[in-house]
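Bifunctional chorismate mutase/prephenate dehydratase structure dump, as promised
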Amino acid sequence: MKLEDYRNLLDQIDDQILTLLQERAAIVKRVGEFKSRTGVERIYAPHREREILSRLEAQNRGQFPSDGLHTIYTEIISACRALERPLSIAFLGPAGSFGHAVSSHLFGKSVKFVAVTPQPDIFTTVESGRADYGVVAIENSTHGTVRDVLEMFQYTNLQICGECFLPIKQHLLSKSPLAQIKKIYSHPQAFAQCRQWLGQNMSGVQQIEVSSTSEAAKLAASEPNTAAVAGQLAGETYGLSVVGESIMDGPNNTTRFLVIGSHSAARTGRDRTSILFAVKDKVGALWEVLQVLKNYKVNMSKIESLPSHTKAWEYVFFVDLEGHAEDGNVRKALTEINELCVMMKILGTYPIGEQSEGF
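structure tokens r here:
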């Protein structure tokens, strides 16, 4: 066969792909009409999307790159979802932040992105209806919990409906050579993740904390002899060059992001449930709650205390449990915990997040 023959075959395959995409779009529109008739409002269904991607990856057998398959189908699902109703996604702005990158990774590009600053305001943006979902950073493997986000769960009725683990690659970005940099902007978490490198290579250079790494990049792009600690997308967005590559102190620097919205997700068989509770003021109260989890064989993957804002020197506990809230053992455990506590609420039940590529 000649080269032109191979190209003709590829053209035929592309025509078939387009025909099938059009058929898929037509079915999605009918699904949207069915949801409207039956009162089903959910557009984003992370459990269903996980099911689709897992099934396709299992059938792929290595003929097509797995990462490419995930990217393509994320965009196909995103475009089809927009046929039902375009979604708006709030993230920590401005454009180019890690939250922006994760939002695009999870929802595709056929959505409206809403940049919000500071991060806790993402909750009010979703609650008010200015965005359908929000993406917030909850913890980092190097620097721990993002406290201002964790505290917001005491006040909101929003549910966690998804999560994503993102390997964070921090770079030193600038329009100036390294030796000419007199000032560095970044988010406090980013500075903390790169403390050792900055101490060894940028000693004496002023460090200024701002609301996000993308805000840092935006400032660095507008001021001479200035740099930002931020990710690759921020550099590309604001025209900055990498003058210090992968400057994180830990090679496995990863941030966990949560998707918040008005609903939880259905069961996938590999799920997580997050709860918030306050124990009674008595000896062994927390032990009793932990004993319930042991009795029902529910694994606890995270526990963190927060000051209660209802009474001084009292605390509430944020806990991640393995399993869906509708699983028999989890459901029974939550019922007993609720009886033991002065307050307990389910913050969300959702598919355990996959590790995505670093940005």
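The first helix runs from residue 3 to 38.
lmk if u need the other ones
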